Amino acid sequence: MRVKRxxxxxxxxxxxxxxxxxxxxxxxxxDRAAADVLFREGRALxxxxxxxxxxxxxxxxxxxxxxxxxxxxxxDCYELNGETASAWATFNDAExxxxxxxxxxxxxxxxxxAGLLEPQLSRLVIEVAPEARIEGLExxxxxxxxxxxxxxxxxxxxxxxxxxxxxxxxKKAWSAKVLIAPKAGQSTxxxxxxxxxxPPEAAAAPAPxxxxxxxxxxxxxxxxxxxxxxKTVGLxxxxxxxxxxxxxxxxxxxxxxxxxxxRSQHGCTDDDPPRCDAEGIELHRAANTTANISNVAFAAGxxxxxxxxxxxxxxxxxxAAPKAALEVRLQxxxxxxxxxxxxxxSF
Length: 347
Known about the structure:
single chain; Serine Threonine Protein Phosphatase 5, Tetratricopeptide repeat; 8 helices; transmembrane helix; 9 strands; alpha+beta; 4-stranded antiparallel sheet; 3 domains; Immunoglobulin-like
């Protein structure tokens, strides 16, 4: 088979070398020069067994400068590459071109080669039943739209995989693949009646008018803010309790220091009033003041801690009451002979 193909290739190339006079009407000198380069490159690739790129070169040469000799070489390349349908069609084109150019030798050779190939052709029949031929139906083979006149005809095709697709308005698309063997034979693909596509989704009912952004914010804010307000109050009270305890601890330590100094340095006793010098008595009075502040701070801190826990743990999940301004203050109150802490808040 390889020897036979070589003989065929050589005979086609020999015929293509004796070039007929070129038609100069539509081609420029540059086109003819480029076509000649492509032709020579294509033949060189074919000799190397690189048929696919060689065929591409010859096809480009033929497009630039159509000639029967180039068509013969291209048809031979297609045959060597296993593209029997393309080879058969191109031999027929070469025969017609050579006959029109009064080149009987090439015309006869092209007809002979086409006749040898025809029994080897693989054919594909695409059947479309009458009930499937609906308005707007498009059937494609390898993305190429088929004329409806070809439905049911045995079309010569190259061996390999072919994809058949069908589509129509309002119908589900359909596709199938068929593998054509590299030998004489006939395959059939039947295009079914296309199924209806699902109806488009019904238009959604118009949504109710949305409130303005300002109104939406005004209505939504109280619920969200009131929910967090009570929890915030609880957390703030927890912070106040820590501050109260800290203040109590500081003033408590200061009290102990003052009492210790009055006893150790000024001889003050535990009597009421204490017996000691004037400076010792002043220290004792100051210790009483800081002790009172410490006691009040500890008490306020404890009360704030309990209140914070109650407020935080009893916060509702939603509350329509608007959030009020929040203010919590803890400050010492010291007067002549008295001391205390004030806890003020509004929420």
